[in-house]
Amino acid sequence: MTMEKHIFYSVCIISFAGSFLSTAVNIAIPVMSHEFGLTPDKLSWVVTAFLIPTAACLLPMGKVSDIYGRRKTYAAALLAFAFTTAAAALAATLPVLVAIRALQGIALSAVYVSYMPLLLATTDEDCQGRILGICVGLTYLGLSLGPVAGGLLTEYAGWRSIFLLSAAMASAAYLFIRPVRQEWYASGAPFVNAVSSALSIAGIVLFLWGISSYAETNLPLWAGLFLLLAFILHESRSYHPLLPLYIFRSVSFSMSNLAAFIQYSATYAMSFLLSLYLQVLTGLSPAVSGLILLVQPIIMALLSPKAGALSDAYGPMPIATAGLALTTLGLACFAIWPDPSVASVAAFLVLIGTGSALFGAPNNSAIMSAVKPAYHGVASSMLALARNLGQASSMAVVTLILSQHTAATTLYADAVRAALRQSYTLFAVLCLCSVFASLARGKKK
């Protein structure tokens, strides 16, 4: 097997495994809440504690990957992710599980910043959109199988089996990359800027934690915003920045990242919300709920490779913008009909799935092609940061909305129903904003 195939297969496996774990855990939240003796909304920290460290560590890990080698960083991160994922299956209490999930997120951040530069370094430029489309398609396939497999595993083998299966897949990805000996580096600073790293990590953690806990106190949110502003000012004056700000002079790069951030903010928490709706409000089992949620990501998995090929031919803007418009329509349907039948849920998910497929691969291609190959590591870090900040923000906002309604309403079902309606409306408005961000980048291929 060639080196290129070893890298490609490894990236494909971890693309599937990471997304599979995400949605499989979401479907297991109501069952986990019974074991730990808490309401399901309290278990949102099992998801949030994973997303926040992932987002916070992306920029420093990107620089580590550039300096010490992308293959070494990727391989070590796969081992760490496999180990922490297996450890999560053994967690006896919720605080222990949340702590392990945070370590999981740190390991996965190192995977995210290194795997795409490795893939692009071993792929011809004229077919990068198609290759990225395959990987995005496998990501969506993981999202699609996550709910149904997670529901079946939770119902018949327990929620801990989800982590064991994911650890096995991460180990398989490591076995594929292990024989590769060639290394890839990026020119730049010979060290990781400690001040920039501290400011960015603390700022992102406090900002996202502040959104989640805003109902109790707004101090972390404002502290996070202050540190993020300090980070930007420091980067503008640093000779060795963690994030070179001048790459944002590219309109395509800036608007593509903004569109990604908004799109993930608007869509990521939908599987969590619909899991609550289907199990808590309609009384369906985890397995049946997973089968219903299967509709959206399987559409995404089928259409993503074709969307990547279309972006190679026509440029990312028209394809991605059409996708965002369809996603907005699907979210608006949930906002207008917040108590839909099972058939309506499936129909709305078809719209969101089609839109997300048309957006994902073209937008990734736009971001990576907007910079020179020397900056692929930075671009990959920024893409992963936009994605994970969006995901973490989505869950943080939902956590805040749920906590407000559960505190104000005696009946838990009524609180969940009101929180769903408010969340759907907010997400629809956000996704509409991403349409304008996508249009602003222009038609350049």
UniProtKB/TrEMBL annotation:
It comes from the Bacteria. It is found in: Cell membrane. One of its GO terms (molecular function) is transmembrane transporter activity. The keyword Membrane applies. Residues 7-445 form the Major facilitator superfamily (MFS) profile domain. Keywords: Cell membrane, Membrane, Transmembrane, Transmembrane helix, Transport. One of its GO terms (cellular component) is plasma membrane. The chain crosses the membrane at residues 7-31, 43-61, 73-92, 98-119, 131-153, 159-177, 189-211, 246-264, 276-303, 315-337, 343-361, 422-440. It is a multi-pass membrane protein. This is MFS transporter. It comes from Megasphaera stantonii.
